[in-house]
User: Fold Carnitine operon protein CaiE from Grimontia celer.
Amino acid sequence: MLRKNPNGDMPVVSENAFVDPTAIICGKVIIEDNVFIGPYAVIRADEVNEAGEMEPILIKCDTNIQDGVVIHSKAGAAVTIGERTSIAHRSIIHGPCEVCDDVFIGFNSVVFNAVVGKHCVIRHNCVVDGMDLPESFHVPPMTNIGVGFDLNSISKVPPEYSAFSESVVSANHTLVQGYRRIANEL
Assistant:
């Protein structure tokens, strides 16, 4: 469902994207080509800053936002999800936040007030709160990263995790095409 926010902003969705009918996309949201938005995802850009302004939530091309993901932003701050990125089931991305290109964020993870560098892998049940992650960083399952965390205690992304992330992007790209074809048949 696409709907306006209280400021009257409507989402802008590429005709080459697929948004599941159960998903809610509200307000100043931009969804680019070949993006997959799964069932029950909520992407909501509706809060303003003290000046009454808000930045968009931008989902760049070839990205997949899976089932039950929530993307929102505090006080009108920007949220950008990069190209070829996978946000897995029931994760929360809360702005201000930037998730760069070719990132994988695993099931039930939370990212808030952070920049996640290119090629990062955040495994399942993780929290990244208030700390930026450098390029190609790997966050093991059930890790909580916040201000003061020693990032040097965690190794770089193993090659097999990057390959897995790429396979998820590819599978969801195929889903975009398949679901759009089905929608055109109805």
Remarks:
- The chain has one helix and 19 strands.
- Residues 2-185 form a domain with the UDP N-Acetylglucosamine Acyltransferase; domain 1 fold (CATH 2.160.10.10).
- Residues 2 and 25 are 5 Å apart (CA to CA).
